[in-house]
Amino acid sequence: MSDGVAKDSAEGSSRSSGNHQQQPQPAPLSRYESQKRRDWNTFGQYLKNQRPPVPLSQCNCNHVLDFLRYLDQFGKTKVHLHGCVFFGQPDPPAPCTCPLRQAWGSLDALIGRLRAAYEEHGGSPETNPFGNGAIRVYLREDDKAKAERGERKGTEKGKKG
Ligand SMILES: [Zn+2]
Question: How many whole angstroms from 96 Cα to the centroid of ligand 1?
Fold first, then answer.
């Protein structure tokens, strides 16, 4: 067992009183925690893959918005374009070339997790790009657009499919 040392030397934290790391990770991470960690790694990877790479300290809400758009390509929610014969149908009977998007709810949850992770990694709440109003607007517009197209899955409670 490697005991001692383990003081992460100046990992960019300007705050000095952050020495609350005495427990050697007893329980496995909760689902939320592991999901959060995975999201954070994905986002970090995304920033690194930018040309040029974006240091976290310079990450702003525009990077986050780009990240959300980037994630859309991995989405499973079909968003038909105007003019598509399946417009308004969430599950088209045949393939079409319209883009896939992330479901609004999953993006909303993702932002919540990244917002928490950002502050856990030493980010300041005041400059937290995930808490930026532009993100809210983006998510809301996205949601509204889907609702107008009739593509939003019924998430309201009390609604029977
Ligand atoms: Zn389509």
Answer: 5
Rounded Cα–Cα distance for residues 54 and 58 (Å): 6
Q: Are 141 and 71 in contact (CB under 8 A)?
A: no
Q: pLDDT category, 77, cuts 50, 70, 90?
A: confident
Residue type, 51: R
CA 59 from centroid of its chain's CA atoms? 14
Sort 130 into a burial class: Cβ within 10 Å, 0-12 / 13-18 / 19+. buried
79 Cα to the center of ligand 1, angstroms: 7
pTM (2 d.p.): 0.67
- DSSP 8-state secondary structure symbol assigned to residue 77: E
Name the helix (H) or strand (E) containing 117: helix 104-120
Average pLDDT, the chain: 81
Backbone angles phi, psi at 40, to 5 degrees: -65, -40
- DSSP state, 131? G
- Say how many Å lie between the CA of residue 62 and the centre of ligand 1: 28
